[in-house]
Design goal:
The structure holds 2 protein chains of 2 kinds. By secondary structure, chain A is mainly α. Chain A has 2 domains: 2-98, Cytochrome C biogenesis protein (Helicase, Ruva Protein, domain 3, Orthogonal Bundle); 104-151, no CATH class. Helices cover 68% and strands 0% of the residues of chain A. Chain A is built from 6 helices and no strands. The longest helix of chain A has 29 residues, at 104-132. Chain A is elongated and about 90 Å long. Chain A starts with a helix and ends with a helix. In chain B, the strands form 2 sheets. In chain B, strands 1-8-7-4-5-6 form a 6-stranded mixed β-sheet. Chain B has a two-stranded antiparallel ribbon with strand order 2-3. In chain B, a hairpin with a 7-residue loop joins β2 and β3 (55-57). In chain B, 30% of the residues are buried. Chain B starts with a helix and ends with a helix. By secondary structure, chain B is an alpha/beta fold. The radius of gyration of chain B is 21 Å and the shape is elongated. The chains are: A mainly alpha, B alpha/beta. At the A-B interface, α3, α4 and α5 of A face α1 and α5 of B. Chain B: InterPro entries: Periplasmic_diS_OxRdtase_DsbE (IPR004799), Redoxin (IPR013740), Thioredoxin-like_sf (IPR036249), Thioredoxin_CS (IPR017937), Thioredoxin_domain (IPR013766), Thioredoxin_ResA/DsbE_sf (IPR050553). Chain B: One of its GO terms (biological process) is cytochrome complex assembly. Chain B: Keywords: Cytochrome c-type biogenesis, Disulfide bond, Membrane, Redox-active center, Transmembrane, Transmembrane helix. Chain B: It is found in: Cell inner membrane. Chain B: Residues 35-178 form the Thioredoxin domain.
Chain lengths: 152, 178
């Protein structure tokens, strides 16, 4: 019985904590709601570094969601909202960092690595191909063909 | 010969990555660069904690000398930890102006807290809904900003201030901008 009530307690506390994380936002139309969801997925929580605003329970993430909601209702564009947050939190806030000299390595690094890898594979592949080319004389080749034919 | 050089690339790359890893391990992952450093203090006009009819505006604060702006709240345990040190340091450093921002707090609790434990602050600004926090790029409380006499933010500290942090990070910045 004690176990059961403990279970109930745990179960309901889980349910309540889930409820607590759900906020209800009203929008004028569906496109606003879509923009809201895209923005909170794309923007990063400044508190819990590895999650986005939609996935974070940190109080500051809730504040920023409310701020984004307010600005969407005020008719501000996505660019304006992202600018607003970048001015305060830096490029860090954006999971999709802008392309500028400071982020070239971030954007093109993986591509450079991939190309380097491909070049290495290609060079190695080509040189080992050269090694496998047979260097038999016509005479030797005939001999080999005979041996192979005998085996059949 | 050319192929040999190419074969060296993965090795060199590996060593570079190890170097990057060691460099990264030595850094505090919570050290997020602040967008506000070397930018002017955000503009605001918000109520005073002691008398909420009085409005404190950003331009009232600047121009007098170096400001230490500390975001705190009674609901924030680390703020309780750093409070005695803030009281001590504000008594010692008379030429600095300590400004508190009571962040998303119950005002009555906040007043009681300062009455009981003493106040390091010359003024306390009320930020009831956290909007000033957003303007400061706050991630949580406590956070402390150093503002120079021109009203430019020069440093942001996330987390508790203690004697060691004061000596190692605050004092160098303050002596540089004075």
């Amino acid at each position: 019985m004690r176990n059961f009530s403990l279970f109930c307690l745990l179960f309901f506390s889980c349910v309540f904590s889930v409820n607590a994380a759900i906020e209800v936002y009203q929008f004028d139309d569906e496109s606003q709601e879509e923009r809201f969801n895209t923005l909170i997925d794309q923007l990063r929580c400044p508190m819990c570094l590895n999650s986005n605003l939609s996935g974070s329970d940190a109080p500051i993430a809730a504040d920023l969601r409310a701020e984004i909601h307010k600005q969407i209702l005020d008719g501000r564009s996505n660019v304006q909202i992202i600018d607003f947050l970048t001015q305060r939190y830096g490029d860090f806030i954006n999971y999709r960092p802008p392309l500028n000299p400071g982020t070239y390595l971030l954007w093109f690094g993986p591509l450079i690595l991939l190309l380097t890898g491909l070049v290495i594979v290609w060079r190695i592949g080509r040189s080992s191909q050269k090694l496998s080319v047979s260097k038999l004389t016509t005479e030797e080749q005939e001999k080999l063909d005979n041996i192979l034919a005998d085996k059949k | 010969m050319n192929k040999r050089v190419l074969l060296l690339i993965p090795g060199v790359f590996f060593i570079l990555m190890i170097g990057l890893l060691l460099f990264g391990l030595g850094r505090d992952p919570n050290m997020v660069p602040s967008a506000l450093v070397n930018r002017p203090l955000p503009e605001f006009s918000l109520p005073d904690l002691v008398n909420t009819d009085v409005v404190i505006a950003s331009q009232d604060l600047t121009g007098g000398g170096v400001l230490i702006i500390n975001f705190w709240a009674t609901w924030c345990p680390p703020c309780h930890i750093e409070h005695p040190y803030l009281v001590e340091i504000s008594e010692r450093e008379q030429d600095l102006t300590f400004i508190g921002v009571n962040y998303k707090d119950d005002l009555e609790d906040a007043r009681l807290f300062l009455e009981e434990k003493g106040t390091p602050f010359e003024k306390v600004i009320v930020d009831l809904d956290g909007s000033l926090g957003i303007d400061f790029g706050l991630a949580g409380a406590p956070e402390t900003f150093i503002v120079d006499s021109f009203g430019m933010i020069r440093y942001r500290h996330v987390g508790v201030i203690n004697h060691q942090i004061w000596q190692e990070t605050f004092e160098p910045v303050i002596s540089r901008i004075k």
